[in-house]
Design brief:
Blueprint: H1 2-15, H2 17-45, E1 57-65, E2 69-72, H3 79-86, E3 90-107, E4 112-122, H4 126-129, E5 134-137, E6 148-152, H5 153-160, E7 169-172, E8 176-184, E9 197-200, E10 223-229, H6 235-242, H7 244-249, E11 256-263, H8 264-267, H9 278-307, H10 311-319, H11 324-361, H12 373-399, H13 403-408, H14 418-452, E12 462-466, H15 473-484, E13 489-495, E14 507-508, E15 510-512, E16 523-527, H16 532-536, E17 540-543, E18 554-558, H17 559-565, E19 577-580, E20 585-593, E21 608-611, E22 619-624, H18 629-643, E23 651-653, H19 654-660, H20 663-697, H21 699-707, H22 712-746, H23 757-783, H24 787-791
Parallel strand pairs: 4-9, 6-8, 16-21, 18-20
Antiparallel strand pairs: 1-2, 1-10, 1-11, 3-4, 3-7, 3-10, 5-8, 6-9, 7-8, 12-22, 12-23, 13-22, 14-16, 15-19, 17-20, 18-21, 19-20
Protein name: ABC transporter permease
Keywords: Cell membrane, Membrane, Transmembrane, Transmembrane helix
Pfam families: FtsX, MacB_PCD
């Protein structure tokens, strides 16, 4: 019976090639999109799933309670030792410190290479907690020794061209010689730790780095602490015990800490600690569902529209003895055949567009992932659901047809599915398309608002050049003076980092004036020189710029400090004493600058303290004449290399750095545009199929109208208005849904664009234009046909 159903289904589909092609193409686009989204979601859901004891691995994190609650994916450096030695909750506890973009020099006689790489300083127990297996090692040596390192397979080949690297050395940051004592297996791309170089944690002492100290006085965002807990631990109970640590070690701090244990499986999906927002993954899943729903609606609409012309076939089948269930399964079989072809085509389309998808999201998804049994289960589930949902409704409708009415030709369209159902489904299609267009426009507006708004400083034509760790004040001043003399250079400033797009931050508690206690809020410390404000065009609201001295005696603050302190005017701050950074800075406020966005638009502008502190300078900012960029950059490199010849020169433009803060949003915007276009394309395919049916059904009517004096424009308006009414109805339903969804999305931005009424109008007008273009060809084709031919049509 099933074989017979498939044969008949095939014949019927071949007979109606145009409608079959429309259905297959629409479903294929929906399936292809769902395949890409499946790969994307699978990639994220598989993060850190390869660790053998993943269910017992936790990261220690901090909730900082000040005037607001802040979350840090780190703990004070002393936490690890105390948790390891004073408590019995964990089998192993280990610290790691992540250092970004540090120079590696390799010279083993055969290869000489210099490049920048992210590295991890790790305690030896870290490799007993995480599953990063060694493929080559000495068997006796560990990362407990200073100046030793593990590197992974890819890094071994990059540095030495071979895996035979035991005993080989490299120079780290032009300072320390590090010996390779093991080669690690390459970790999956879905790993929290993706770096290829792991240097022993004791080596940090050579750099006098904060992360290596045993202190409770602060938190370094580079430092992380992991623990492998004993089985069956009560996490809430442990966290309750940890509440006593700040009371013991930080009794007088206004920045109240609460130390928490974050499960390994939560790290990738917790935006509070820098993870991916799981809401975005849900959005992708819903978009994939939307595309399949739109394609399924196309199928239902076209199938029910064709039912009128298949009524005699159904009547004859019933007269010859077919039961309703036979007819139902017959139409379901047709849907199954279409869906099967569509899935095959959809997978092909997904594979073809996978490289572009990878490039957009900087992923390395492969077609081999489609050979996984979970993907086959997913495809079978989609095939069954789409076939059943798309085919069951037309099958039920057509199996209900009364054979006497069908054979006499007395059926109307309400008997075969009715226009009401089709209109409701078309409204749903239009509503989904409107929501996607609105989302695309608002995301685009927000990104444009963030990048092109007044940030409070000038980011154009400013080059940021890194300064090596090994430098002194005399070198910096000499380099600054040499660069300043280059024709086309207008301003130069030594600093920790730029005002926006910051890559470094130094938060600290502080005391103001004669107030006895530290303030409830922290302040962001920005080391800089006296030319910083002029270089970045930051306005001075009151006072003057500090004088450069050997010690910090004068500082600047921004107006956010005034607002937080509750001071009425900027002038009132001038001459007041401020104490910060654990008492290291005791200085007088000599100037107040206007607020500027030091971080992206998702967070408030920070209270900022500016001071001349050259030991923390990491960059030199150079404002140049954009008309001579390449020549100026070459001369800057010559001057820079004259002082730091052993280091890699890497200039970066500030406007690019600021734009990089919104890379994720830019990717989602691009994907939103693609999916919106696909939703509209699928909808247009359905509309084209429906208009073919309607034009064929009303050909004789069009001929009569032309005889009675209607012109082509009148006939086009006749068909268009029916769809325009549906678009307006869809807009009524889609507008509050789209507004709510985008309002929720914008809540993630402290500074955000507004949602204007014209965005919803634009979405509806866009759909109307696309609909008009879609239906025009067939409508005009019939409208311009001779009335004689139209009137002969039956």
């Amino acid at each position: 019976m099933f074989k017979n159903h498939i044969k008949i289904a095939w014949r019927n589909l071949i007979k109606r090639k145009v409608f079959t092609s429309i259905n297959i193409l629409g479903l294929a686009i929906g399936f292809g999109s769902s395949v890409l989204i499946y790969l994307f979601l699978s990639h994220h859901l598989s993060f850190d799933s390869f660790h053998e004891n993943g269910d017992r691995i936790y990261r220690a994190v901090t909730e900082e309670h000040r005037d607001y609650i802040d979350h840090e994916a780190s703990v004070p450096p002393a936490f690890a030792k105390v948790f390891r030695e004073n408590y019995q909750y964990a089998e192993k506890v280990a610290k790691i410190a992540n250092w970004e973009e540090y120079q590696i020099n390799v010279d083993d006689g055969n290869n000489q290479n210099a490049f920048k790489e992210d590295v991890v300083f790790a305690e030896s127990d870290f490799f007993d907690i995480m599953t990063f297996p060694l493929v080559v090692d000495t068997g006796t040596r560990t990362l407990a020794e200073p100046n030793t390192a593990y590197i992974n397979e890819d890094m071994a080949k990059k540095m030495y061209g071979t895996l035979d690297v035991l005993g080989k050395t490299f120079l780290f940051d032009n300072k320390e010689t590090i010996e390779v004592i093991g080669v690690l297996k390459n970790s999956p791309k879905t790993s929290l730790i993706t770096e290829g170089i792991f240097i022993s944690f004791p080596t940090l002492e050579k750099f006098n780095d904060f992360s290596g100290l045993e202190t409770w006085s602060g938190i370094s965002t580079d430092l992380q602490c992991f623990a492998l807990l004993h089985p069956n631990q009560n996490i809430a109970e442990i966290e309750n015990v940890l509440l006593e640590l700040p009371k013991e070690h930080r009794p007088n701090s206004k920045n109240r800490h609460e130390y928490k244990l974050q499960p390994l499986a939560d790290i990738h999906f917790n935006p509070d600690y820098g993870g991916v927002n799981p809401g975005l993954l849900w959005i992708f899943a819903i978009i994939g569902l939307f595309l399949i729903v739109i394609a399924s609606i196309n199928f239902i609409n076209i199938s029910t529209a064709q039912a009128f012309y298949r009524s005699k076939e159904i009547g004859i089948r019933k007269v010859l003895g077919s039961f309703r269930q036979h007819l139902f399964w017959q139409f379901l079989s047709e849907t199954f055949v279409i869906s099967l072809f569509a899935i095959a085509l959809g997978v092909v389309l997904a594979i073809l567009f996978l490289p572009s998808f990878n490039a957009l999201f900087e992923l390395e998804l492969t077609a081999e992932s489609l050979l996984d049994y979970r993907f086959f289960a997913f495809m079978v589930l989609v095939l069954v659901l789409v076939s059943f949902l798309s085919g069951s409704y037309p099958g039920l409708l057509m199996s209900r047809i009364v054979p006497v009415l069908a054979l006499k030709g007395k059926l109307n369209h309400n008997d075969t599915g009715g226009s009401t159902t089709r209109k409701v489904l078309v409204v749903v299609q239009f509503a989904i398309s409107i929501i996607l267009i609105v989302a695309t426009v608002i995301i685009s507006k927000q990104i444009d608002y963030a990048i092109n708004s007044d940030l409070g400083f000038n980011k154009d034509s400013i080059v940021m050049v890194g300064i090596p760790e090994e430098k002194d004040v005399v070198q910096l001043e000499s380099l600054k003076d040499q660069i300043q003399r280059i024709p086309g250079v207008t301003h130069v400033s030594n600093c920790l980092t730029s005002p926006g797009g910051s890559i470094n931050s130094l938060g600290t508690s502080f005391k103001y004036s004669n107030r006895p206690e530290y303030e409830e809020f922290s302040i962001e410390l920005k080391p800089m020189d006296e030319d910083y404000l002029e270089t970045f065009d930051i306005p001075l609201v009151a006072g003057r710029v500090f004088f450069k001295r050997d010690s910090v005696t004068e500082v600047l603050v921004n107006e956010k400090v005034r607002e937080k302190l509750g001071v009425n005017s900027a002038e009132e701050l001038l001459g007041k004493q401020i104490e910060a950074n654990g008492g290291y800075i005791k200085a007088t406020i000599v100037g107040v600058v206007a607020n500027f966005h030091d971080i992206d638009f998702t967070e408030e502008i920070s209270p900022i303290l500016m001071a001349y502190e050259p030991r923390w300078f990491d960059e030199i900012a150079v404002k140049i004449d954009a008309r001579s960029t390449s020549n100026i950059l070459a001369q800057i490199e010559e001057k820079w290399s004259g002082l730091f010849g052993g280091y890699i020169y890497e200039p970066r433009f500030l406007d690019n750095r600021v734009a990089e803060q919104y890379e994720a949003e830019q990717r989602y915007l691009s994907l939103s545009k693609v999916f919106s276009a696909l939703a509209i394309l699928i909808g247009c395919l359905g509309l084209y199929g429906l208009i073919l049916f309607f034009v064929g059904q009303r050909t004789k009517e069009i001929g009569i109208r032309k005889v009675l004096g209607s012109n082509v424009a009148n006939i086009l308006a006749l068909f268009s208005m029916d769809f325009f009414k549906l678009i307006l109805i869809a807009g009524v339903f889609a507008t509050p849904i789209a507004w709510y969804l985008m309002e929720q999305w914008l809540q993630g931005y402290t500074y955000r664009t507004e949602i204007h009424w014209w965005i919803f109008a634009l979405a509806m007008v866009s759909i109307m234009v696309v609909t008009l273009v879609t239906i025009s060809y067939q409508t005009l084709k019939v409208a311009m046909t001779s009335p004689v031919k139209s009137l002969r049509t039956e």
